[in-house]
Specification:
The protein is of the alpha/beta class. It is built from 20 helices and 23 strands. A 9-stranded mixed β-sheet has the order 13-12-14-15-23-22-21-18-19, sandwiched between helices. A 7-stranded parallel β-sheet has the order 5-2-6-1-7-10-11, sandwiched between helices. It has a 3-stranded mixed β-sheet with strand order 16-17-20. The protein binds glutamine. The site of glutamine has 11 residues, from helix 16 and strand 19.
């Protein structure tokens, strides 16, 4: 029997950024898994930060955290939501990480006598990182290359993937290029020239794409795709249209399947695969298109204008909506502006309030106002990470009577440091990858809301923060009606807090949004949206 050969799919992007390359890569992974193939996914990012952990969400959108504590690109969130690919720190690497490894090796003397260069040392390091995922348990590795063809910083990555067919055989590699076909209203025509140029650039580097996925505003038709095929030197059937979707991102994999992309990949890579069954996703899409009711959730944050800053939270709310046949409308509220507004007017009509994670003090008082409003008016509330810390501060000030209580992140001299940094964090000086990161266990308290919705005693959730609920205050809070419903069994830290005599007031120190999937909504998001649905029904009954 022939030795097992892991196949490679490389996904590159051209013409413009933000084409949805991550989503398309995830959709390809999903289609291949639905054909019974074992898929691993990874993303290469050409920027120089060692990881995105030190970037502002305004620059980069959300930082997606993995079980092993990897702080990664948000596209990995798409991969995890769409596929079962096991993701680790090795699933996302940047120019910065490649260079720091190569430079460390040089200092150790691993290249003694050599001039260390982009080709072959940097490219070899990139190739090694890509091929590291290959194993007898993996049929296909999908490697997405961040950025757009033509970017200076992407060149070493393109050169590395150009070389891989020489190492593993061209028949074992597939290049998929994603581009844009803009529609020019004035000309009344879809324009193929930018795509021709982009493919031309790839071919100059020595990469001939096997499949083109062309993003369009409206359907192109056969004549246009045949023209693209001819000019780009791609087979006619290998030009796949991916028009903008009307309802949901779940249409992406179904649309690609309709264009037989999965079969094309299976044929081109000579894979043996099962027939496809996408009924579960068709069913999800049906639910998204036909909700029985609608709820409005206010998300009160500080990176509200950036559409991807709370990406996984918005996705997790959608998943919970699907679970309860509800369309979840998100009202994005800038916390800093809320400080100057009438909270009653802004939040009076919502069915639930969510305060997400964040860093720095801008908008903190607005978040605290929103939480007070939720607590006093029995509006379902869900706090995540910084959202939990703000809930602790609010309760300290309003209920426990600790005037000026704060987190030492915002007021180092507060008399009541209800949120503080633990000793081991205080010693750390470097900012990169030094937070409390990744999966940590949490034991749930019997009889609590958390225990009820998770329906198990011990859970594992992902963290990304430096500050904690100060254990010194715990007893006093509990006496005043706070419940610590989740505790880390290893260090005793409070991970979940609740107010039991409230319809839904639950806040968590971890990030549950990273573990929600479309067919399996996260229990806490599901519980929160269910409580919001009940409030919505009550409000409707009052108005009739
Ligand atoms: N800034 C807070 C901390 O570092 C919360 C972080 C977060 O919300 N991810 O602890």
């Amino acid at each position: 029997m022939a030795a097992h050969q892991t196949k490679h799919i490389f996904v590159t992007g051209g013409v413009v950024s933000s084409l949805g390359k991550g989503l398309t890569s995830a959709a390809i992974g999903l289609l291949l898994e639905k054909r019974g193939l074992r898929v691993r996914m990874q993303k290469l990012d050409p920027y120089i930060n060692v990881d995105p952990g030190t970037m502002s969400p305004f620059q980069h959108g959300e930082v997606y955290v993995l079980d092993d504590g990897g702080e990664t690109d948000l596209d990995l969130g798409h991969y995890e939501r769409f596929t079962n690919s096991k993701l680790t720190k090795d699933s996302n690497f940047t120019t910065g990480r490649i260079y720091s490894t190569v430079i460390a090796k040089e200092r150790k003397g691993e290249y003694l006598g050599e001039t260390v260069q982009v080709v072959p040392h940097i490219t070899n390091e990139i190739k090694a990182n890509i091929r590291k995922l290959a194993s007898p348990d993996v049929d296909v590795i999908i490697t997405e290359l961040g950025g757009t063809v033509g970017d200076i910083e992407g060149l070493p990555f393109l050169e590395a993937i150009r070389q891989i067919p020489l190492d593993v055989g061209r028949q074992n590699c597939l290049f998929i290029h994603l581009t844009l076909i803009p529609y020019l209203k004035a000309a009344g025509e879809a324009k193929t020239k930018p795509t021709q140029h982009s493919v031309g650039q790839l071919r100059q580097i020595g990469i001939q794409p096997d499949i083109l996925i062309v993003r369009t505003e409206r359907e192109l038709g056969r004549e246009a795709t045949d023209k693209i095929a001819l000019f780009c030197n791609v087979e006619k059937d290998a030009v796949i249209e991916e028009p903008d979707k009307e309802y949901s991102i779940y249409e992406v994999p179904l649309g690609l399947m309709d264009h037989k992309l999965d079969q094309l990949i299976v044929d081109k890579l000579g894979l043996r695969a099962d027939p496809i069954d996408m009924s579960q996703w068709a069913d999800l899409l049906h639910k998204v298109k036909n909700p029985s009711h609608e709820v409005t959730i206010a998300v009160v944050g500080k990176y509200i204008q950036h559409k991807d800053a709370y990406k996984s939270i918005y996705e997790a709310l959608d998943h919970a909506g699907i679970a309860h046949s509800a369309r979840v409308l998100v009202k994005r509220i800038e916390a800093e502006e809320l400080e100057r507004q009438d909270v009653d007017v802004v939040l009076g009509g919502v069915d639930g309030i969510l305060v997400p994670g964040g860093f720095g003090m801008r908008g903190i008082e607005g978040k605290i106002d929103a939480i007070r409003f939720a607590r006093e008016n029995e509006i379902p509330f869900f706090g995540i990470c910084l959202g939990m810390q703000c809930a602790v501060i609010e309760f300290a000030r309003s209920v426990v009577g600790l005037a000026g209580a704060n987190s030492t992140e915002f007021d180092t001299h507060t008399h009541h440091p209800v949120i503080c940094m633990l000793q081991e964090q205080k010693k750390i000086e470097e900012k990169g990858a030094t937070m409390r990161l990744g999966a940590q266990p949490c034991r749930l308290t019997g009889g609590s809301r958390a225990r009820e919705v998770y329906n198990t005693d011990l859970i594992s959730e992902r963290h990304r923060h430096r500050y904690e609920f100060n254990p010194v205050y715990r007893e006093e809070f509990v006496r005043k009606g706070f419940e610590v419903s989740g505790v880390n069994p290893d260090n005793g830290l409070a991970e979940i807090i609740e107010i039991p005599n409230h319809p839904w007031f639950v806040a968590v120190q971890f990030h549950p949004e990273f573990k929600s999937k479309p067919p399996a909504a996260h229990p806490l998001f599901s519980g929160f949206v269910q409580a919001a649905c009940s409030r919505h029904r009550q409000r409707m009954e009052l108005t009739v």
